[in-house]
Design goal:
The chain has about 210 residues and is mainly alpha-helical. It has a domain at about 10-110 and about 160-195: P-loop containing nucleotide triphosphate hydrolases (Rossmann fold). The chain has helices at about 10-20, 25-35, 40-50, 55-65, 85-95, 110-120, 160-185, 195-210; strands spanning about 25, 75-80, 105-110, 120-125, 130-135, 185-190. The strands form three sheets. Strands 1-2 form a two-stranded parallel ribbon. A two-stranded parallel sheet has the order 3-6. Helix 1 crosses helix 8 and helix 6 (about 110-120) packs across helix 7 (about 160-185). The radius of gyration is 17 Å and the shape is globular.
Amino acid sequence: MGMPGVGKGTQATTLHEQLGVPHISTGDILREAVRQGTTLGRRVKGILEAGQLVPDDLMRELIAERLRQDDARNGFVLDGFPRTSEQVGILDAVLSQLSISLDGVYLLTAPEEEIVRRLGGRRVCPKCSAVFHLETRPPASAGVCDGCGSALVQRPDDTEEVIRDRLRVFAEETLPIVETYRRRDLLREVDATGAPAQVAQRLQQTLEGVS
């Protein structure tokens, strides 16, 4: 868990490699559906571009279908869900049906202005999905993907206006569920400032402390 741009996807990918379980990113699944123009993608395209949360009925379908797949039977790293109190209930119900319990909930934290800087400088390749950053990971040639040569773009939800709105939505909708998991003694907070490798080390130490 954590604010948009705090590094959830980066750290979840690292955990996927370390633990050998799938990294399940609801955001990535939804964006891929939009890119492919699927029925789900057409339903959520405008919602994602406005930086709003996808309705719970769609998220219920998405998460239940994904967690039932064979590669998730021995565990998973869930990234981007739940984001509301209602979604906590959805996840509880899905996990109960599958006889699964959560081992932990990890909250990555960083100052808001750091988040605006990170997301505002992000550029993506619309063809191969490579991700760059104007400050920390610039392409070799300005505005051009290193891998396939396509022109890089800024995602609609990475403009400053939308970023600020996404952070407002996070504060209003997602922060309250932090206390839910804290009361269940599942919550662990991890400082997400600094280089990704430093954050990964802190997260690993937290995981070892739990195990």
